[in-house]
């Protein structure tokens, strides 16, 4: 099954927000997507419904129960730190090959049509002590949806993430710009300015608290085009 990465220019910018909206848009087209958040930190079972795995399960229309949480997010750590640091707090070590193997195994599983994998943090956040999220994505090459914000400084952060992602040989299906909370520069102007530097990569705008359906539908088009799977 084709894979699409959900990556961020930084953390807390809207990866899960956009991924959930994209999953809903794909399902609305009658498609059957799957999702994986291989590693989540800052996770608590008490607030699972608000966690990344919980929000992805809700977008997939699946119950938020222990079995589904384990399936969608096998590595969950309590500390709100980068994955290798959060793992170490629990005396654990993240093995790169096993996380990459998790993605490959899910891709090989049948029954679904498109796999979305949400990374943790930003494109160059660590996954292990010696591998970044970019290394992780490069180990399973597939189109990337890059999430950026609109806070002051976001244009540089987003273009930097775009440049390193492309330099790693990964195709960027779209930049999804999720409007940052106030105070932030004007959203439309920020998106237009970013777009002028983004080349052929579409920049799709997710205005804050405005409903994500229209943008998610355009993102679904970009993603299905990028995977070229004939799923449209
Ligand atoms: N466009 C948006 N409109 C409303 N809320 C948003 C938007 N983008 C992000 N958020 C909210 O901001 C917070 C961080 O977003 P989240 O998707 O969890 O980020 P990430 O997955 O990149 O860490 C969440 O509470 C999310 O619901
Ligand atoms: Mg997230």
Give an account of the 3D structure:
Helix 1 packs parallel to helix 2. Helix 8 links the parallel strand 7 and strand 8. A six-stranded parallel β-sheet has the order 2-5-1-6-7-8, with helices on both faces. A two-stranded parallel ribbon has the order 3-4. Helix content is 42%, strand content 15%. The chain is an alpha/beta fold and 232 residues long. The chain is built from nine helices and eight strands. It has one domain: Rossmann fold. The model has no long low-confidence stretch (mean pLDDT 97). Magnesium ion binds next to helix 1. The site of magnesium ion has 4 residues, from helix 1.
In percent terms, what proportion of residues is strand?
15-25%
Helix and strand string, N-terminal first? EHEEHHEHHEHEHEHEH
Q: What percent of residues adopt helix (DSSP H or I)?
A: 40-55%
Largest beta sheet: what is the strand line-up?
A: 2-5-1-6-7-8
- Give average pLDDT, whole number: 97
Counted beta strands? 8
Q: C-alpha Rg, in Å?
A: 16 Å
State the name of the first-level CATH class. Answer: Alpha Beta
Structural class: alpha/beta
């Amino acid at each position: 099954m084709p894979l699409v990465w959900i990556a961020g220019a930084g953390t807390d910018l809207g990866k899960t927000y956009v991924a959930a909206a994209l999953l809903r848009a794909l399902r609305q087209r009658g498609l059957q997507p799957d999702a994986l958040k291989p590693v989540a930190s800052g996770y608590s079972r008490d607030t699972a419904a608000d966690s990344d795995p919980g929000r992805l399960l809700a977008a997939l229309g699946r119950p938020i129960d222990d079995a589904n949480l384990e399936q969608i997010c096998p590595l969950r750590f309590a500390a709100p730190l980068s994955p290798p640091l959060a793992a170490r707090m629990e005396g654990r070590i993240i093995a790169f090959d096993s996380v990459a193997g998790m993605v490959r195994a899910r891709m090989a599983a049948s029954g679904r049509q498109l796999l979305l994998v949400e990374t943790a943090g930003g494109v160059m956040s660590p996954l292990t002590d010696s591998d970044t999220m970019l290394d992780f994505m490069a180990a399973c090459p597939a189109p990337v949806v890059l999430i950026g914000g609109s806070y002051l400084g976001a244009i540089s952060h987003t273009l930097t993430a775009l440049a390193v992602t492309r330099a790693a040989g990964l195709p960027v299906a779209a930049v999804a710009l999720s409007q940052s909370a106030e105070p932030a520069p004007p959203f439309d102007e920020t998106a237009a300015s970013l777009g002028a530097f983004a080349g052929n990569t579409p920049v799709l705008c997710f205005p804050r608290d405005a409903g994500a359906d229209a943008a998610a539908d355009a993102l679904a088009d970009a993603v299905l085009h990028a995977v070229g799977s004939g799923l449209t």
